[in-house]
Amino acid sequence: MPSFAATILSHTSTSNRSSNRRDPALSPSSYYCMYNDQILSLTGSIIYLSALPALALAARMTHKHGRKPTMWGIAVLLVVGAALGAAADNLAAVFASRALMGMAMGCRRPPCCC
Whole-model pTM above 0.90? Predict the structure, then answer.
């Protein structure tokens, strides 16, 4: 985890780390609250930001192409996003993978609960 954090989060300096990291009760393996950074918190929100436009287009794609081809396209988008996230070596690749997975998750959600 530290080598991954050093590679992906190289823009985050030690001045941006939260004060919880210096707490002796915090174990060294707990990296979840290690950084306090706006760009890093965007990685969690980017799924929802990309799911909104995909949700709007999902009904049109289903109507035009049918359910089965649309679901296959969603599956391909999700697999490509996961593979890109697994192979990510910089923050832009992480953002791109999260956006692809968000679009897939937005498309799989029905526009109404009928």
Answer: no
